[in-house]
TrEMBL record, chain A:
The keyword Mitochondrion does not apply. Keywords: Oxidoreductase. InterPro entries: 2Fe-2S-bd_N, 2Fe-2S_ferredoxin-like_sf, 2Fe-2S_ferredoxin-type. This is (2Fe-2S)-binding protein. Residues 13-94 form the 2Fe-2S ferredoxin-type domain. It comes from the Bacteria.
TrEMBL record, chain B:
Keywords: Oxidoreductase. Pfam families: Pyr_redox_2. Residues 5-324 form the FAD/NAD(P)-binding domain. Gene3D superfamilies: BFD-like [2Fe-2S]-binding domain, FAD/NAD(P)-binding domain. The keyword Oxidoreductase applies. It comes from Parahaliea mediterranea. Signal peptide: none annotated. This is FAD-dependent oxidoreductase. InterPro entries: BFD-like_2Fe2S-bd_dom_sf, FAD/NAD-bd_sf, FAD/NAD-binding_dom, Metab_Enz_Cyan_OpOx_G3PDH, Opine_Oxase_asu/HCN_bsu. SUPFAM superfamilies: FAD/NAD(P)-binding domain. GO terms for molecular function: oxidoreductase activity.
Automatic annotation (TrEMBL), chain C:
Residues 4-368 form the FAD dependent oxidoreductase domain. One of its GO terms (cellular component) is cytoplasm. InterPro entries: FAD-dep_OxRdtase (IPR006076), FAD/NAD-bd_sf (IPR036188). This is FAD-binding oxidoreductase. GO terms for molecular function: oxidoreductase activity. It comes from Parahaliea mediterranea. Keywords: Oxidoreductase.
Amino acid sequence: MASRIEQGVQRGPQITLTVDGERVAAWAGESLATLLLLRDRSAFYRTRGGAPRAPFCNMGTCFECRVHVAGRGWVLACMSPAEDGMEVTTGETLPRIEVGDGAH
Amino acid sequence: MARTDLAIVGAGPAGMAAARVATAHGLAVTVIDEQPRAGGQILRQPPASFRVDRWLADRIYRPQQSLLQQCAGLDGVRWQHATTVLGSELTGDGITLSLNTPGGVDELRAERLLLATGCHDMPVTFPGSTLPGVMATGGIQAFVKSQQIVPGERFVFSGSHPLQLIVADQILQAGGEVAAVLFSQPRSLFWRLLRQSPVLLRYPAKLLYFTRACARLMRRGVAIQFGRVASSAHGEGRLQRVEIADSGTLEARDTIACDRLGIGFGFLSNSQLASQAGLECHWSDSAGGWLARTDEWMRGSLPGVYVAGELTGIGGADVSQREGEIAGLAAAMDAGVLAPGVAAERARPARRALRPLYRFADVLSAMSHPGAALLRALMTRESTLCKCEEVTVGTVRALLDENPFTADLNALKLQSRCGMGMCQGRYCQYQLRTLLHSQRPDLATGDDGFQARFPVKPVSIGALATTPTPEEQ
Amino acid sequence: MHCDALVIGGGLAGCATACYLAEAGLSVVLLERGEINRGASGQNAGSLHFQLEHRLIHHADALGEELQHYVALTRVAIDHWRNIESELGSELELAMHGGLMLAETDDEIALLERKAGIERGQGLEVELLDADETRARAPYLSPQVRGALYCPHEGHCNPRLLTPAYARKAARLGAEIVTHCTVGETRRQGGQWQVRGEDSRGTRREWRASVLVNAAGAWTMDIGRMANLHLPVFPIGLLMNATERAAPFIHHLIQHVGRRLSMKQVDDGNVLIGGGWSARLPQQLGQWGAGRAAIDMTALRNNLRTALAVAPGIEPLKILRSWTGITGITPDQLPLIGAVSRAPGYFVAAGGSGFTYGPTYARLLSELITRGEPSHSLAPYSPDRFAHMNMFMG
């Protein structure tokens, strides 16, 4: 499990968001990847074959840290700062398309 | 559409140095970077709201720290952060960049373009390489440098690049546990290179930095092993242990429990924008994969396009910074605001510094490369070659056996789906190429790489479709 | 070296023709400048569109009777596709779950009705759907869609897999496939075709064959010139887009009768969007240059806007890549398939919905070559309809 470095580090304002429905506090500027590693998540997303995947590069090139954010679809957790009120879901597989109300 | 004289992609040492020089000669400069703050990977800054004591205080970071400070005070540079360049379009009278910004897709019209896109850790395929907990060593380091976290509890580092020592040391100092640091090369290689390459001694600060890290690791009882490699990663849904093997025979020697495995076999350039633009590139096994060709003014093969830093060959921050200076001068000279004689004069210190730096980089690249034999041996049939499309090494081998006339990388990509997924081949091209060359030893075809396509990173249909067309602007 | 038939071009037309000729017992050599399937055959989006397309319907008056021949050929092609996986012994990700040709205006509905008349007249099954029936089958479609023409046979096949499968089978049947060989000369000598080629190492090779098949796709005209022939096939650059994978939601091939659109979701989950939006061909000093066609950003946006207009739900899906391909088109849009009378032993297979009809063209052409008569008439597509262009070619 990951942990914050406390010595010699002052963090700014605190924010609150939800991860898989649970309310979570974070420091402004922390990436979603940081937050999820601190929460010990290992399946950021799952492949079509069901395999769990988690951050590899931490710089926006490997696309292994995809997580779902309400209203935005998937984002790269390593490139996305946590924001107040964000709703994050981990372990998702394929995006689902809203098909509208059809003929009903 | 916004306009600029010089668009610089990448706010690392090369991009910052070019911005500083070009703006000093009166060019309007726009620097675009995906990260929220300038500095590149070498100075991956903590969030603006953090205060970190003695952040990257070692003297080896000084040239870049001072550049970062200078850049903070520059007028005439527009810093466009949290923005991805999706592609460029070269027309007769300039360059149009397509940008994915936090506010949507936008375009930027530039007279000139500098690609200073840097590099990423070289991925390596082995059984378990996609297991959560297996991370790039540079990625681990960025968590420490920028996010100020220790991204795990017990670390093993496996690779061939000396950066491993630095990161392992940083993890120790930050309170993590380092179970082992493995180098695939024999220890004798390092001694031999030290003796045979006097250029290394020109940079005592760098040597000292590595030596100190090494000494601290040893003092804390960390095993630094040579001729060893993590040959497979295991665990239920996440990394729990790695198997350590002899790097020559891959014979298993040990199993170590850990929750993080750092992979540190060197770096590959971020060449996708260069490829998408159509810049001429050449291949290097040990210095970064696809590298853009430049002339002595860092001009690429297309008019108005310059290249500096790792994309011309992995060379480190000092090389990047000096190349950036030259590129900045070249852009000013080609724009007609700096006389060629004066530009040549001003480029002289950078050129003088670069000569030994290039020699140093060559030694480092040669020393740090794991070698094709090890990479091939690690790629067992069941290991995942293309992680995005979940294509195994065995599948690709079978395709090559069944299709004897398939002999180029793009044809193999088309048949195997390798490189057609989310990362667009960044994490499988090197291995696929290694595999292709090992099964087609008589390969006579052109040295063709994956053709990078617009957009070089995925972008939503909604964002692309709503960008106004030129007629609508 | 001597062989019965020499095929130039390693795309679908070339590989499939080589395969059928080898199957008929001919000794076959196929020459390809680069790699198998690297041109339009591998770069197209893999639609199987059996309904008359947008590009043909809009020129229905000019094409007249030819369209009826075309629809008749469609029925042959449908039967061929139904058996193609077993014929080739390969999985090709073939899906024939039907296709919808959409209409948004009264005029477009009228066009669909007229089109349905031509198609039914030739025995092609089509069904006119109103707005509710359309959305009952494809609930992701926008309420703007007023109706559609449904053809139960349409679908898609993976273009990455089809041509290599033909090449493998051809090789199994004894055909020699020579890649990275650039043809430099084709000459008629002593009742045979003499062909010179050079490989990437600069080694020259020479073949003699009684039959020469020009299957060079967008470069048919260049190869034709080597035999002193004008074969009017003009290159066009086309744009395609692929999204990330999504859970299955599009089950049909979607086209539009009034707008340039083709959209489908493949087995892997990616949505492919195209429909005939142009890409800029490379130019050099007034000639078509080498290399790939460039993306026209305006065309790209308009292509995506068209797709969004009929399927608004795709908005959050990410585009993984947009790419271009170069295909060939003839002056009358119909394919160029058959013998060139003034050049004995010279055959052409090019142009005209080359993916959907490619396997069928190749089979019929091989029948023409080996038996003198194809099992379904190729007369409307004969290169001899442009014989006047070769009257003065000495």
